Amino acid sequence: MARKTNCEDCGELCGGKRCRRCWKIEAKRKRDKVCIRCEKEKVYAKGMCGRCYAKKLAHKARDVICLECKKEIIGRIYKGTCRSCYSKKESQKPRGINCIKCGKEIVGGVYNRGMCQSCYSKKWKKENPERYRAKNKKWKKENPEKVNSNARKWRKENPEKVKKWAKENPEKNRAATKKWQKANPEKVKTINKKYRDENTGKVKAATKKWGEENPENIRLRKRLRVALKVYTEEGKIMSSKKYGLDIKAVVKHLGPCPGNISLYHLDHIRPLNSFNFTNKDGTQNLEEIRKANRPENHQWLTVEENLFKHGKWSQKIANKFGVKYET
């Protein structure tokens, strides 16, 4: 007859170190151990749950070379190949089954009881539009370079569709073009230069036509260029906008020419020679240049009147044209 001893846990008489009841409690405690990695699920092997253990095995080097890509296999071995090569091979494998939706032979996986991958993905997108948008948005944020390269490739392959969209959505197209031009000023310069070099005749004809349609713009730009050349040492070194010449505002203020444009001059009410365009250190005085080129300082005058007025500036002239006399 076996010698009875006291249980280590409860102290009752039993045939071993623990009684049956305490042994069951200990076995349950061991089964309910938590994973050392995720600290959520029960232990499966080596102190880890099944999912964490599988992940660890997936990143383990096998010291075996893949038959397809000739690289060392990390993780599970699939018929002598790595996972990526095996999946590529399987995705190109014909299944001998026709898709129930499009009727084509299925190559790769069979989805949703007899559908090919493309048909199934289309169906899923229709059924889950919000999830698809969120997933797509996340992928685009994480892969901006791939998005740009795919977009460029699609535009090259579908030029007619691009033109059609641009015609149907002119405002959106302009906004997108402006945004891109602001983000890529150097690329814009190189593209424009290349176009001008390759199409000199077209550029000259277009410039001439624009000049005939907008004579006021040409005159204003010319007057500014000549004034800066005469009254400053550096001459015109920036664009007209940076000098404060808003050509559109000036043209709007002047209105249409009162007669034949060849018989009229664009006059500065306060003449340009009355402004001090240079500072003491020899640099350009931008504040004075802006004052001289503000819209209110422009008017239409006949050739005879402008030649008579010339560069004169006095209280009498200021009163005549209804402006404030400044020196």
Question: In short, what is this structure?
Answer:
The chain is mainly α and 327 residues long. 51% of the residues lie in helices and 9% in strands.
Quick tags:
327 residues, mainly alpha, two-stranded antiparallel ribbon, 8 strands
Written overview of the protein:
It is elongated, with a radius of gyration of 41 Å. The model has no long low-confidence stretch (mean pLDDT 84). The chain is mainly α and 327 residues long. It starts with a strand and ends in a 6-residue tail after the last helix. The strands form four sheets. The protein has a two-stranded antiparallel sheet with strand order 1-2. The protein has a two-stranded antiparallel sheet with strand order 3-4. Strands 5-6 form a two-stranded antiparallel ribbon. It contains 15 helices and eight strands. Among the domains are: 5-58, no CATH class; 61-120, no CATH class; 215-321, no CATH class. It has helices spanning 20-31, 50-58, 83-91, 117-127, 129-142, 144-157, 159-168, 170-183, 185-198, 200-213, 215-231, 247-254, 286-292, 303-309, 315-321, and strands at residues 5-6, 13-14, 61-65, 72-74, 94-98, 105-107, 264-268, 298-302.
